[in-house]
Write a structure and sequence with these properties.
Number of domains: 1
Biased composition (Polar residues): 1-20
Largest sheet: 4 strands, antiparallel
Order of helices and strands: HEEEEHHEEH
Radius of gyration: 22 Å
Region (Disordered): 1-26
Number of helices: 4
Structural class: alpha+beta
Number of strands: 6
Shape: globular
Strand content: 15-25%
Strand order of the largest sheet: 1-2-3-4
Oligomer: single chain
Helix content: 25-40%
Protein name: DUF927 domain-containing protein
Length: 164
């Protein structure tokens, strides 16, 4: 009986340790979601969708974006990254010169899911920041709306003081 009691005590102690370790970790700040959506993938006739969210951390002046998943089960990286990087890439494009989704691979440093770039391209098309390039299969053209759209979102961010 003593052995059983010791095992139960050891089991209870083991079960409480993960809870203690988890409570010692600082909680990640929750993101404030400014907009979210569901975009249809770019393949003609596709009904598969990918979700995305645009937001920021409370009291931060940086806009963030992330992919939230695909209805078709395709893998994607769901971490947040700076939306300014996406806008910078769009700013580098000429209005009449097509580009492919591969442009966005640098965001993930050419790592992560191979779906990331195409899924982001679908989200940007859904947001009407890009459109289909008629002469290039799976090619994109900028619509010219991205700077105004980005500035409009930035105006919704909290004003962050730069003085201490």
């Amino acid at each position: 009986m003593n052995s059983k009691t010791n095992k139960q005590a050891a089991s209870q102690q083991t079960n409480t340790q993960p809870e203690n370790k988890a409570s010692d970790k600082p909680a990640l700040p929750a993101k404030v979601i400014l907009t979210s959506g569901v975009a249809t993938l770019l393949s003609p006739g596709s009904t598969t969708t990918v979700g995305y969210e645009i937001g920021h951390e409370p009291e931060q002046a940086e806009l963030l974006i992330r992919l939230t998943g695909s209805s078709g089960g395709g893998l994607c990286s769901k971490e947040w990254f700076g939306l300014a990087q996406v806008v910078d890439l769009l700013n580098e494009q000429e209005p009449d010169k097509a580009f492919t989704s591969g442009l966005f691979k640098v965001i993930w440093h050419f790592k992560g899911s191979s779906n990331n770039a195409g899924f982001l391209a679908a989200a940007l098309r859904h947001l009407e920041l890009t459109k289909a390039a008629p002469e290039v299969r799976f090619g994109h053209l900028i619509t010219g709306k991205h700077t105004e759209w980005f500035d409009s979102l930035k105006s919704k961010l909290p004003k962050v003081s730069t003085t201490n």
